[in-house]
Amino acid sequence: MKKIIINIGIISLLLVSSCKKEEKIQVCTPTNCGTIINDGIDIDANGNNCYYLEIQNTCSDNVKKFCFDQNTWQNAFVGTEFCVTNQNPW
Fold first, then answer.
1. Residue 44: count of CB within 10 angstroms of its CB
2. How far is CA 69 from CA 6, 18, 31, 64, 72, in A?
């Protein structure tokens, strides 16, 4: 009787250990959009203002700093989504 119980236990373990969980692969399409994580004003070597937004890309999580005109900068807020046109995905 012990042998039957042990054999059933071993077979059960083999069946359970052979099951694999299916992994979901998340595909992300490169994008020019992300979350604003920082903003500020820099002055370049020519004395021009750079109203910048640091944006974390939604797909890659990369962070990049972009300069904008004052109006765009004033209407963009940290923590909000923002898309940059005329740029390659970063």
1. 9
2. 75, 59, 22, 17, 6
DSSP label of 77: -
CA distance 50 to 62: 21
- How far, in Å, CA of 43 to CA of 33, rounded? 25
Euclidean distance between CA atoms 77 and 83, whole angstroms: 13
pLDDT digit string (tens) for 51-84?
A: 999 999 999 999 999 999 999 999 999 999 999 9
Strands 81-83, 63-68: pairing kind = unpaired
Q: For 17-44, how does the pLDDT look when each residue is reduced to its tens digit (9 = 90+)?
A: 655 556 666 678 888 999 999 999 999 8
Shortest CA distance to 58 belongs to which of 21, 86, 83?
83
CA distance 61 to 37: 11
Tell which residue, 83, 79, 19, 23, has the closest CA to residue 57: 83
